[in-house]
Amino acid sequence: MATLKKVKTVLWVNGEGKRVLPGTEGAKKRTIVSKKWYIVDKVGGKVVRTPTYTDKKAATTALATYLKAKERGESGLADPFKKHLDRRTTEHLAEYIREVKQRARTEAYPKTVERELTKLFKLSECVTLRDLTADRIATYLATLTVRATTKNKFRTYLFSFCAWLVKRDRLPGNPIDKVDPAKLGQQDEEPRRRRAMTRRELRNCLSAVERYPLLSVGTNKGGRPRKDGTRPAPSVANLTPETVAEKTALGHERRLVYRTALLTGLRRGELSRVKVRHCNVRRGRIDLPGHLTKNGKPGIIPLVPTLKADLKEWIADTARGPEDLLFYVPEGRNLVTLHKAHLKLAGVAYETDQGFADFHSLRKTVNTLLRRKGVPHRLRQRFLRHAAADLATKSYDDERLNELAPVVQWLDRLDRYMSAAEAVGG
């Protein structure tokens, strides 16, 4: 028999009022009673709690309507979740993504969530919401050959989606609660990590970044195979002056993106959101508001003189307005592919026994080089805008390179070095 009740939640809090695990020393037991009245009934062998209203009279009316519907056998009303459980997961996902887009700080995040969850639903055969069970998701994640951190990222996307479904009264509970996070593997297994590039590798990389757009279209690879299966030999492509100018300009922009990332410590996502109005070339700095940074705090990033001059010239030459992006930064996956191509052209190994050198490694590289020149830890931490005091030492420092002039002065010398004698292998 369905009844009307208020839901009680028992939890433990410490002296500061923060929630802690039961049994924690000094913790006190606290019982919280819901403001809303819930219809509590057993449906399909499971206890289902359906929220109604805070007003008891209105809640009593809702209970009477529920009981009447149940007596009539109107299962869609008797089971408040049935109409949602029988809908396709992709329909719920489309509504979820619309809300995510309204509060997301970047355009890339909603696209990534939608792409990964659509793929997950397809491969795990979760056609309707009723198919979205903990066992099915756990089995799907176990079959993936990606690293544990990637599996946990997919789990997080799905957990947030299911939490939204629970909040919208479309699921009785979050099934992902029962899916254990993936573990990183054996304790004696060394985790995969980023490495810092040397100054020579950086110089060769920047040179390759600028030359790659034109070189990538400068060779005709032969096209379709002949009838006998052979392919024409590669030949030099006949490029129009317009194409040469376009690709040369793109190479200049890409090099500027890499230099700015290296000399400011900006992350890819932050760099992609910098607008012209954030670039205060008159005062020689980038003023990034908190809603555009990773830690949510405003960032004031000094510009070395050479970069300041080049950015000023870039803005003027491209006639960018205050609300225009400073430059175009490829999205995550595209940048991964491009970055590997740049390293290959530069003759720099993407991965060695010391670790891998992705685009984010530019932050680790500049921190390591600053440390090598004796820049104090506190200054490096401020430059990289780290919240944790030891992050600049543990995560972005490379002990294999030796341990101020002010940070900007040394970075200016580094930038001048990058611009000199840029031939690959030079």
Instruction: Tell me the overall shape.
Output: globular
What's the helical proportion of residues? 40-55%
From the alpha carbons, calculate the radius of gyration and give it in angstroms.
28 Å
Strand order of the largest sheet: 1-5-6
Alpha carbon gap, first and last residue: 83 Å
Structural class: mainly alpha
Number of DSSP strands? 13
Give the biggest sheet. 3 strands, antiparallel
Low-confidence runs of at least 5 consecutive residues: 397-405, 422-426
Averaged pLDDT: 80
One letter per element, helices H and strands E, the order comes to EEEEEEHHHHHHHHEEHHEEEHHEEHHHH
Helix tally equals 16
Task: Give the amount of beta strand, in percent.
Answer: 5-15%
Task: Explain what this protein looks like in three dimensions.
- By secondary structure, this protein is mainly alpha-helical.
- The protein is built from 16 helices and 13 strands.
- It has helices at residues 56-72, 75-78, 82-85, 89-103, 108-123, 134-143, 148-167, 199-217, 241-264, 268-272, 305-318, 332-346, 361-372, 377-384, 391-394, 407-419, and strands at residues 3-5, 8-13, 19-20, 28-33, 38-43, 46-51, 219-220, 235-236, 279-280, 285-288, 299-302, 351-352, 355-356.
- The strands form 5 sheets. Strands 1-5-6 form a 3-stranded antiparallel β-sheet, covered by helices on one side. The chain has a 3-stranded antiparallel β-sheet with strand order 3-2-4, with no helix packed on it.
- A hairpin with a 4-residue loop joins strand 9 (279-280) and strand 10 (285-288).
- It is globular and about 80 Å long.
- The relative contact order is 0.08.
- The model is unreliable at 397-405 and 422-426 (pLDDT under 50).
